[in-house]
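Long-time lurker. I teach an intro course on protein structure, and each term I like to show students one example going from raw sequence to a predicted 3D structure in token notation. This year I'd like something fresh instead of my usual example. Would anyone be willing to generate the tokens for the chain below so I can use it in lecture? Attribution to the forum is fine with me.
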Amino acid sequence: MKSSSKPRLTSKTIHVRKSLFQASGIKRHYATSPLLSHLLTALSMTFPEGERFFVESVRNVRHLVDDPILQADISAFIGQESYHAQSHAAFNLEVLSADYNIDAFQEAMTAEFIRLRTLSHRRQLAATVALEHFTAMIAGYMLKHPHMMNRFDPNMQNLWMWHTIEELEHKSVAFDVYQQVFNNLAQRRRSMRTISFGFLVSNATVTAHLLWQDRKNSLGNVKNLLKNTRDLGQILYMMLSIFPEYLAFYSQSFHPKQIDHTQLLAKWLPRLEQKQSRYKFS
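-- Reply from a regular --
Happy to contribute to a lecture. Here you go:
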């Protein structure tokens, strides 16, 4: 059934905000270790193209959604993801334009998203659902463990606090669209298995590549090696901690809202809103 031509509602739970992040003066190592800095940069490299793909995969089938509340959430989802893409593109340009050679990785990533766009609308949306679950798991962990956010420079805290909060706000939108339009459990599971391997391998590879290109600064002294070792332990602990949430995705009855982030958002949203209330956007 096609959606109504009536004016769309405004989402009551998903709010589109601009970021306080400033894409200038970013330190080479903006987190507590070179390893964590380069891992976050590797993740950020995927976001501009990835967020655009997420939006397209939902838009492809939006006309088949007849729930006005979900339509409102789709509009807010698109708004949030569009701002995420813009902010991470600005971050990437500032950080990676200096002395990193990442052309091969960017070309491979672009080629992969071109390939994904040749798939059926069902498979494209299933890929988005899987990747949105990954971002929600990581976002939830970072907000549950404030010491992770405290490992970043204040400017980077602005970027990642804003992004992680909004990932949790819209974590179920793509899933709900997929369920309403396709409701195909087998495809959802297949996509997650495929995406899991690619997500982990590509991010680990790019992180290692950035570390190696920056080896004089990242690996060249005992102090940084100790910092890297400590943060590697934190990263591995995060992966173990979110693994039950990852496995839950394969359940037939799974829904993203079964992982309750209500109290977490209630804790962090006032902090974000207080920061934004003091800033005048242009």
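Some talking points for your students: The radius of gyration is 19 Å. The CA atoms of residues 148 and 257 lie 23 Å apart.
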